[in-house]
Amino acid sequence: MGVAVPPTGPRRLLPSFQVLLIILIISAPKFGSWNLLAVDAAPTTSGETHSEEYCAMYDICGERPDGKVLNCPYGSPSVKPDALLSSKIQSLCPTITGNVCCTESQFETLRASVQQAVPFLVGCPACLRNFLNLFCELSCSPNQSLFINVTSTGKVQSNSTVDGIDYFITDAFGEGLYGSCKEVKFGTMNTRAMEFIGAGAKNFTEWFAFLGRKAALNMIGSPYSITFKPNPPATSGMKPMNVSTYSCGDSALGCSCGDCPSSPACSSSAAPMSHEEKTCTVKLGSIKAKCLDFSLAIIYAFLVSGFLGWGVFLRKRKNAATTSQSLDVSHSDESQNVDGLKDESLPMAGQDAPHLVSGARVSVVQGHLSKFYRTYGTWVAQHPAIVLFTSVAVVSLLCIGLIRFKVETRPEKLWVGRGSKAAAEKQFFDSHLAPFYRIEQLIIATKPNAETKKSPPILTDENMKLLFQIQMKVDGIRANYSGSMVSLADICMKPLGQACATQSVLQYFKMDLNNYDTDGGVDHVSYCFEHFTSADSCMSAFKGPLDPSTAIGGFSGNNYSEASSFIVTYPVNNALDKEGNETGKALAWEKAFIQLAQNELIQLVNSKNLTLSFSSESSIEDELKRESTADAVTIAISYLLMFLYISLALGDSPRLSTFYVSSKVLLGLSGVVLVMLSVLASAGFFSIIGVKATLIIMEVIPFLVLAVGVDNMCILLHAVKRQPLELPMEARMSNALLEVGPSITLASLSEVLAFAVGSFIPMPACRVFSMFAALAVLLDFILQITAFVALIVFDILRAEDKRVDCFPCIKVSSHSDADKGIGQPKPGLLARYMKQVHAPVLSLWGVKIVVVSVFVAFSVACIALCTRIEPGLEQQTVLPQDSYLQGYFSNVSEYLRIGPPVYFVVKNYNYSLKSSQTNLLCSINQCDSNSLLNEISRASLSPETTYIAKPAASWLDDFLVWLSPEAFGCCRKFMNDTYCPPDDQPPCCPPGSISCGVDGVCKDCTTCFLHSDLQNERPSTSQFREKLPWFLNSLPSADCAKGGRGAYTSSVDLDGYENGIIQASSFRTYHTPLNKQADYVHSLKAARDFTAKLSDSLKMEIFPYSVFYMFFEQYLDIWRTAVIDLAIATTAVFIVCVVITSSLWSSSIILLVICMIIVDLLGLMAILKIQLNAISVVNLIMSVGIAVEFCVHISHAFLVSSGDKDQRMKEALSTMGASVFSGITLTKLVGVIVLFFAKSKVFVVYYFKMYLALVILGFLHGLVFLPVILSLFGPPSRSTGTAKQHARPSDPDQSTLNY
By the 8 A CB rule, do 797 and 728 touch? Predict the structure, then answer.
């Protein structure tokens, strides 16, 4: 019997989302094909080689086999360009005027090369200008020879060409350039542009070293080496290049806060909100305590001091009373029974007024109840067969509904309420954008060294070949779905419509084993770890860069070489229709995938001394279903032992001579059958009306109803046994029901109402549980007072007729000894203990002080401990201990280095030019400093409190950059105003072409807009509307990295966007790694608080969405849900008690004890590290029902007994204590202890530990604390003292209780 668990859901709420698939899809292009440094300057000649207006290199003298051009190493005077060339140079290099040191061919090469960098930097004008100046000065400056020195030359077809130069640049320029560019974001990849254009350089020296490196053939970099130096030789006459740099915070060319957080305009912005809870503390010397703990300690000290003072005063006043004072008549009958009602003539006479029943004053309601039970008891004794048949028949009819019985296992239907905000947001996201993809994952790791306890690196040649072998097996999976064979290629996500976006280090070899040795094997992987964003050879098969952190794990920082695990993730397409073909195909493939991993891959990996863990999208749900039967035997044994104990406990003294007649095994089994029948009838009724059951219901409700039902059975049977045998059957049954019927009704109605009000709570699992439990308890109560009472009548008749228990057809001969044994049994051990030991000890004054002090102290401590209970439900807890997911979850926490993706969704974005919402969202230049994307970027600087790991990928930023005239390789159009792709894409560059020039079909393409066409660098409404589809369909490539296809295909809802409103759009980033349940809850809360603040400040509707939010939303309000549910349940109990007993005093004491039991149970949850979740909330609600059983019967017996408070307390314990103890405590202990041996940890934690704690707390409070409180502060007696002394059948000495 398993538990459908809230936080797990059908999707893993794990860092496996770190797939960064979307990072991959983003497809930042092959930036590595740049030729920036091939455009450079002119040769040095003899003569005056280092002077103003003189070139060090001029013109192009050859090209390498890979097509990269090489400059001539000849110096010459600078040249005045013609007007057209001059205007072109001015448009790109405004610092160069007059003469130049570049030909038109050199300039076009420069222009084509830098165009690949422009899309990365155009969002930050200062950075772009500084970057362009670096290469403009190198290529075309008229004073080129002052800072360029050719150091080596080469030969190409007998022509001398430049092979190496020194480029002298001041440190001030280098620092200014790097400072303006270091924080510029490349939104598509959620990372810095420096990762692409500088290989992640940490300073300008590293950046220059990267830019100046001579590239091997067909590799990224310069065609010749460039050595950047700060100072030329003193005798050379040269001066370092020192063009002015622009700060990223410059007033004219300033960048956004996201690209320039150091800008004064940005540093003045409010810091991101801290979500750390501020804890109030008090310091006393070296001791530091929480304010709550300190306050509770003071309150407890005052309470105990007041109690002790009151006790001393009371004792002195009592001692001062004269010993000769005559006792009041109402207190003379010290041993009178609970109701003082056993004058056999009273029930039969029918002369009592409703407010006076058998010597006790009762309320109007209780008077009518007593009258009913008196009459009903007589009738049922006369017609037991009719009562039994009718009640069982009615309940059995309800059981017919079980033919429609269904169990709900879908987590979203169990833990997400109808009014769930997260569910509504998920539905909006799925319908307007796209459902989150499915995740299939393998984690292959090295085993820790036995001595060092550290795992060795996994990156070896042998392990790489093993990974290829595993991949071939995965590719070979063919799953049967409706007669067709499904492979990974049929269902995988293909962001650019080509290859699967599998995240694996094998992508550095295009997933092809043939490329492994050719590209350099393990060394190539290490190279790609450092250059995955820039090296063309490291691009994946799906044409996007692969972030190493998504494919390896077990490393710190960026030390990828330390990685101890491979992480292989297969993103699979998801569908809105969960019953459709797409989902069916995925499920079929996932099943085959898990079978392959279990049957073949584990053995294969283990043979290499490695470990393998794996999971699919459907794994959790499948394992939960398997767990449903994992402990069936354990649960069955638990219930069987309870049944056996109940059957034996209801019998008489185990005398061999009469046992076969006096035992109550058949009656006990019949009672248990009635209990289970009530549970089945409840399930049948709700099945008829279409309400699905849950696994929690199947596990908890039988336990609950057994506790309530067995207690009622014990009380009813023992009340009958207490009646004098000389009374006729009708009188005995009437007396018994009159004695205990009102308290049973009070307890049962309290429980029914307590559970019934829970049906109004929003969480489906708790609501359905409350509904099933309320009806089950009600039906159980009805069966107890009808069918079970009738069964008692039949059992008495059987015993009187000397028929064998369990075999009533067999009749034994009568013997005088046997008759004596049956008719006049001695009191049972438990009854004697309660009267002779338990009650007298509790009446001692010192014991009372200790009991009250200890119980109150524990409750006060538990109030403080309650604040330490963490919400959540660990995945490992709810799964079978032998589940393959146990190791997977452990490895996820240990190895994954990035958290789940989180989307910030904007509803109804008005992109019209008149609206300011564009600038309120974007993060490039001229965007609002407190815009959404700038705030996200700022929040990512405090990941420990915001749980945001990176700035967001922004389709809006990239679209605005893509539109910009400066990104001249991106938004282009043919002469007929149709879309023209970049020069390196078809039809501009036909497939198979080695190089693509400017003379092809796209030679006449122009940028979509001139600067004059835009208003403040923003498109008009019509321009935005027309070009957005172009952008979303544009493939990213080397010539334009900002294409939106793949990266943003699902980020914008184009339905109805023509009217100027985009209904939904999303901006993606990532949470920090979330390893604990608390991390998931806090990340959700932080994201919601963050967007609530932004929505309010920006006056836009923004919400965060991540796939796990829907399942963890319950924990944001789990305390509120628990408190409200418990408050409603306890209030319902209180109201019923007041209505039935008309005693506010007695009802308040019952309420106090129930609240203490709940508080103490919460405190034990903190001590036992039991988390607060739907399962524990259900258990807490159930504890109210169990607590009622422990309290109500004792309180009622005390209320209607006579004597002083100590005497009434003893009377109540003597009469009801044994029934309560045996009916609940012993029965539950027998069943609970067996759960300790359950295979599933969820049973051990949430059922064994919580149930055991509840039973112990209930016993201690109901049979220790409550009697003491009643003896000290109990209400006045309702007894009138009119009952006859000789008719006291409730005296335990007349009882047939036997335990």
Answer: no
